Structures
1.
Amino acid sequence: MAQVPPHSRIPLDLPLDHVGSDACSVDNPASGMIREILARVGDKWSMLVIGVLHDGPLRFTQLHRKVDGISQRMLTQTLRNLERDGLVQRTSYPEIPPRVEYAATPLGTSLSEPVIRLALWAAEHQGEILAAREAFDEAE
Amino acid sequence: MAQVPPHSRIPLDLPLDHVGSDACSVDNPASGMIREILARVGDKWSMLVIGVLHDGPLRFTQLHRKVDGISQRMLTQTLRNLERDGLVQRTSYPEIPPRVEYAATPLGTSLSEPVIRLALWAAEHQGEILAAREAFDEAE
DNA sequence: CGGAATCCCACCTGATACTG
DNA sequence: CAGTATCAGGTGGGATTCCG
């Protein structure tokens, strides 16, 4: 299931030094950027919303159902942040009853790919993580 | 980068179902797992630690200096979590004065790659995000 | 239907002090 | 050096209620 998607054109010889060394070290101001992005993307819900919106626009209530466990408050807040960052576009139709659609922007869609990488990594290594966790918990 | 039409209903050859909740079972093991991974990866310090450890093992105080702004408490806690998940290996040398080394495991190193993709995405689109943010803030 | 406003608390986090 | 212990403040996020 971990096959590389056909339209993925990310070179696999990615330089891994970009986080740890001079190109982008933690002493470097660039790390602030990383931290900020991870904060945005890594919050409890943003990535899941981006994920479900990749398939197409959804209404508020549809999103509420699709993203399991999210509260109304958090969904609203998350959508606001994503909209603010240009990752999601909100379109309101002045009808009765009111209808509001949320769609991923091209920018938001482009974010899906790295997010999916992470998801794949998680899927691939979840067994190892769980095993390590059990071993650790049992050893103490 | 891979251009994807914003609202295309093209079937995803990427297993995006692991991100949302719909394609998973009711209990959503995959979604919960993703969420958990994102929680680990997205917390304030884990990735920075993984990042600096990518270059090689470091001692506690070295880490403390390299990861700017982290408190002793959070460094300890972060390292414990990473160790528990098998991402970091802790080695204690019974010497005087005591010496403890932290090294990224192969699993931890493999995590760097998707994270770096995220960082690269951030670097690439940071300008767009900031512009969108300014436009949004100004419009309200 | 799609929110906004309010209440409230668990937990995250930093600061400080102490220990083997 | 490499932590642990304790306290205190801020905040993330759920539950509930109300509104256009």
2.
Amino acid sequence: MAKNTLKKLGLKLTPQRLAILNLLEGNTKHPSAEDIYNKLKPQYPSLSLATVYNTLEVLVKAGEVHEIRIKAGKRCFDPNPIPHGHFLCRICESVFDLDIKPLEIQTPCSIKGYLLENYMIYFYGICPECQEGDNIKDR
Amino acid sequence: MAKNTLKKLGLKLTPQRLAILNLLEGNTKHPSAEDIYNKLKPQYPSLSLATVYNTLEVLVKAGEVHEIRIKAGKRCFDPNPIPHGHFLCRICESVFDLDIKPLEIQTPCSIKGYLLENYMIYFYGICPECQEGDNIKDR
DNA sequence: TTGTTAGATTATAATAATTACAATCTTGTA
DNA sequence: TACAAGATTGTAATTATTATAATCTAACAA
Ligand SMILES: [Mn+2]
Ligand SMILES: [Mn+2]
Ligand SMILES: [Zn+2]
Ligand SMILES: [Zn+2]
């Protein structure tokens, strides 16, 4: 629940933060900062894109939200704390969850002197919907 | 050899492209477009950053170079065609190769209807050098 | 060689995502 | 209710990247 998340992190309870957290809760769409802004703007006309970025930054730093870097130049955000893979469709550009068995690696751990704190697996290809009909394109 | 790569791809042999390819050959530093530009500018004063981007684009499209999206907002490039993992140190921000046994997945393949053409694994943490002394910082 | 031309390079402008800033506002607490 | 720390906002600045149009040159044939 959004309210508890903010309290746990020692953050002030503001309507903007609650709205952002509520929008993210259970959301598997992997929205960008601008997606979130556009979704909330109608209900919160005073909302600023800067606030969306600020809020996402504290949530990511706190580990409440993960930053997905699957597409160039644009981050997207994921509230799902359970480790899972991500898939970017090169046709529709959507990002999907892909429940691939995670690596046999547990984090944190140390491999060849590198301290691994986290990892991400990104897959690229074509999603089921975009494979229908004549959508399939050569690379 | 850079010359052969260009011929194979049906591209004109220009000093700029040869310089970029030579700089990349065997390079494990994962340079950004700007890194490449800055490295070559002294020897090729007329070189334009646009040319670096253009060249990288054709090389990536041809599969000769891989685009690494391990850090937000800035791509870096890798001429190594052998699948391998990448590690970003959160202290020095360097990207290292990490020879982790790849997934049991072979690409292309299809999982749950998703056509997987490619995948990347990114690790985050602290590199060996940055773990020395008092460099270790809490997250 | 030389001429031709498709394609490459360049400088620069434009765009897109993100961050910085400073003024104003609000939450949490006394 | 009054205050102060922190949050929000609008806007400017920054950064990475892409687009554009003029100029240049590698490749090829005469
Ligand atoms: Mn996800
Ligand atoms: Mn590499
Ligand atoms: Zn798709
Ligand atoms: Zn380091």
